[in-house]
Amino acid sequence: MNTLTKSIVLLLTLSIAMTGYAQEVNDEPLRDNWAPSEWGADDKAGAVNRTTPEMVLKAIGLVRQGKVATLGKIYASDAPVLDGRGYRLTIPGLPTGDATGPQRVVYNDELVTAEIGQVGTQFDGPGHIGVRTSKGHFYYNGRYLEDPDVTVYGLGPLGVEHVGQKGFVCRGVLLDAVALRGGTLPIPTEMDRNDRGIVTDDDVKAMVEKQGIDPIGEGDCVFLYTGHGNIWHPSDWDTFKPAEKQKRVAKFNSGEPGFGISACDYMASRKIILTGGDTWATEALAPDFTGETEILLACHVQMMPKRGIWNMENLDLTKLVDDKAYEFLFVWSPLKIKGGTGSPGNPVALW
Questions:
Q1: Sheet holding 131-133: strands in order across?
Q2: CA distances, 73 to each of 83, 120, 280, 287, 350 (Å)
Q3: In the prediction, which pLDDT does 22 show?
């Protein structure tokens, strides 16, 4: 089965799983008063509002060795993407601009065609995940796709630029699930907290204790290393032949280990502001997109539209793991893409 066929099968699997829900609604956001958020009805940024000057200064204090690592992966046309998304870069003209002036200056531009906020290392913003309710498609802080200021030309108050105005400067916490489990976590096969591919609330607490760091707290950004991301490791990806890359893309996209809903609920109770991981969703997903329970994309829904806790995917956490840098200063901001669903990026960790 080639990569295209496997991608089609994956899409059909998700489509079939969702068919029973296609005409149904979920009124939990209305029933449980997900809006307005604790930051008021006008807020567009979410949990990053928790950040205070005191938190920033404390996070800066974690830089003791002067070490730096960038956590973003390389954007390339042969990198794994999901859901029929794509990435294509061309340099028109070579050179794009012909020689001009007495110095005969030439220049190049690039043309990128992509779901720019949802490929590669990606940040999920307020307009990415929502819930179909009886009142319409509900998103963070009670905004709807049906609102007049939300259009196909930009998501208005749900645009990622509103989070970009804030940015993230926080205590980064690395949770090394590979060290906890004794090896790379597998793709889950059971909707059960005992599945080795699912990281639970108890696992989070165990990793914090094992790693000898302070408990997860308010304003933290928490990142999970599962080892699954090494299927697409930036240091060796270009050494593989096309057939091997296709094989790895299919494996990478076929499901993933990650946080279960109990872990996400626990971290939310600790008032974190961001989750991230070395996988394409951060949360545990079996091939049918279920995880610790039968609910599809449970963490995505409970963290983002409900709580404004955003998510960053496809991070390269290996340098942090190798140095056992379990606490660090994390610095990054989404691009201010007006009306965008998310953002590419290359976060920086300092310790």
A1: 131-133, 136-139, 143-144
A2: 19, 7, 12, 24, 17
A3: 55
The answer to the question of residue 48 being in a domain is yes
Per-residue pLDDT tens for 142-176?
999 999 999 999 999 999 999 999 999 999 999 99
What is the CATH number for 322? 3.50.30.50
Torsion of CA 237, 241, 246, 252, to 10 degrees: -30
DSSP code of residue 99: E
CA angle 85, 86, 87 (to 5 degrees): 145
64: domain range? 3-75+118-350
Whether the Cβ atoms of residue 314 and residue 278 lie closer than 8 Å to each other:
yes
CB distance 332 to 343 below 8 Å: no
Return the structure tokens found at 175.
Answer: 């949770």
**Total tally of structural domains belonging to the chain:** 1
Residue 343 lies in a domain: yes
Of 320, 318, 310, 316, whose CA–CA distance to 341 is shortest? 310
Residue 225, Cβ neighbours under 10 Å: how many? 27
The answer to whether position 113 is within a domain reads no
In the block, residue with structure tokens 């696992």? 203
Residue 31 has a CB neighbour count (10 Å cut-off) of 9
